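Fold this sequence, please.
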Amino acid sequence: MVTDTFQKRHLHYQVLYEYALLEYELNLQGKEVPRLPLKEPQDLLRQIKSLRQHLNV
């Protein structure tokens, strides 16, 4: 269904955006950017947001 495809694509773009933001903020602070294992998009998004909170970025 078109809606399912749109939602999946939106989730992937959200993951890319959040990771890029994390990478940018860590680079500004001179910190190393962690490489994340391949997982489901929802898990990645949760992990990225958790990392941002933990690293105070």
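The CA atoms of residues 13 and 40 lie 13 Å apart. Residues 2-54 form one domain.
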